[in-house]
Here is the input.
Amino acid sequence: MNLLTPDPGLLFWMLLSFGVVFFLLAKFGFPVIVKAINERKEFIEMSLLSAKQANEKLANIQAESDKLLADTKAQQKKMITDAMQEKQRIVQAAQEEAKMSANQIIEEARLSIQTEKEKALREVRNEVANLALDIAEKVIGEQMKDKELQKDTINRLISNL
Here is the structure.
């Protein structure tokens, strides 16, 4: 037997067994394999499509996130600016109120001083009038009869000075 030359009977049975196996595979095996391959292909295509959609959604979410972050920063900046303006307004109002309060206190002090001054002048006039009466009584030697009339006369004389 030579290894390189095939025997015709062996060749026939090999072809027949190959044909039966091929027929069985073509009838029962290949459709299942093709169906599995097609399902796998569809699954891969759906996965790719889902991945593409997920990437698009992620890009949209990223864009929205960036926009929200920018809006938030703008709002934060506006809030800080508004707070600074409000602070400035409050400080200015407090300064004005302090000035008004100080002016009011000064005016009240001025009025109080004026009142005290007038009171002191009246007291001094009364004292001077009493002293003048005492001196006049001692000098004249007699007491004038009406004290109120004496005081009015002395006040009039002091006002004329």
In short: The mean pLDDT is 87. The CA atoms of residues 71 and 123 lie 76 Å apart. Residues 8-140 form the longest helix (133 residues).
